[in-house]
Amino acid sequence: MKMKFNFLGGADMVGRMAMTMEGDGKTMLMEYGVSPTKPPEYPLPVPGKIDHMFLTHSHLDHCGMVPAVCGKQNCELFTTPLSAEISELMMYDSLKIAKAEGYPIPYTQQDIERTMKHVVPLAFEDTIELGNIDVTLHSAGHVPGASMFEFKADSSTLYTGDIHTEDQKLVLGARSRDCKNLFIEGTYGGRNHPPKEDTINAFIAKIDEVIDRGGIVIIPCFAVGRTQEIMLLLKNLGYEMWVDGMGRSVTNLFLDYPEYIRNAKSLKAAKRTFNEIRNNASRKKAVEGQIIVTTGGMLDGGPVLTYLRTLKDNPKNAILLVGYQAEDTNGRMLMEQGCINLDGEVVKVACEVQKFDFSAHAGHDQIVQFIRECDPENVVIMHSETRELFLPDLEDYNVILPEPNVPFELDI
């Protein structure tokens, strides 16, 4: 069976993922995300009617624009129940930010409500029949609930979404699947992660050093996945630790769906070792503690800015960055220039600043290894600004580097 694929976003860049699949008498949409820049960047408009939609996971660059399709077209949305619930949190938060910042609002609260009514919740290894195509979900190892979608017709086509092949404390890594066509993310094209244990040891040593000198450690974290991974790493340190922001709600959702996390007992233990911040009174207590784990991960919003107002001028304190810092974000400015935009004014930060690689994406060599284990005929590399760096390692495969709005066909 022939199928036509077209990327509406996320082909040659990290962010705003969106891809249509046309064949077997229907049009399907893989993801519809937003790049959470200032202002947000959206994928190209969806051309016409969508019959079915698939969501790999709940990060905004994959789920952020879903209500603009599902809510307005009333099409089914296939995803895990955990990804659906966290995406709902993210969508409402996006609406709130758009209103607060004066950005265009691409969908309404009613669109979100309609989207949630059209969710078809699926567990890993569940298979659904859509005409002549069988669709199976597999774990992507990226964050809890994150899925790869396998489409089987005459042959097998695997769409990975974001993947990590290495086991994390929160989730086990993705496992390869034999397939003819492999659509795979290439976020870390040309870059490998340092050995994980080295990163963890350096991170904990830095925390000990900062606290020994009388400083406070601020760890800005993404709410989905990174907050919980860091809590698991720190749970046995014995310090006075606080957690703030949407990460608290996401942790509770993870515990509501223990089948999607590696060790629910361990995450519950981590949750107990952190004081949860729910109001300004507890925020005042937190800045007299030792460690604060808080959203937002790129320092562009969320409670982290409240803490930086109080803590930024003390060189004994440290800001430990544990996630990707996109261009034009406070986090990137802090890394490159030692300052941030706070309340419309660029201010110097006296704290120590250090970045640690806790990525939930596979590195270059891990992606190449995954491709070889899947042994496809065709490899489509997406979600990457450095895709061409894979080519020397993939000479045995037909590698496709799709461009936005340039359709191509494959037999599936």
From TrEMBL:
Domain Metallo-beta-lactamase: 15-216
Superkingdom, natural source: Archaea
InterPro entries: Beta_Casp (IPR022712), MBL (IPR050698), Metallo-B-lactamas (IPR001279), RibonucZ/Hydroxyglut_hydro (IPR036866), RMMBL (IPR011108)
Keyword Nucleotide-binding found: no
Pfam families reported for this sequence: Beta-Casp, Lactamase_B_6, RMMBL
Keywords assigned: Hydrolase
Leader sequence residues: none
Gene Ontology MF, one: RNA endonuclease activity
Residues of the Beta-Casp domain: 227-334
PANTHER family registered for this protein in UniProt: CLEAVAGE AND POLYADENYLATION SPECIFICITY FACTOR FAMILY MEMBER (PTHR11203), MRNA 3-END PROCESSING FACTOR (PTHR11203:SF52)
UniProt protein name: Protein similar to polyadenylation specificity factor
Organism lineage: Archaea, Methanobacteriati, Thermoplasmatota, Thermoplasmata, Methanomassiliicoccales
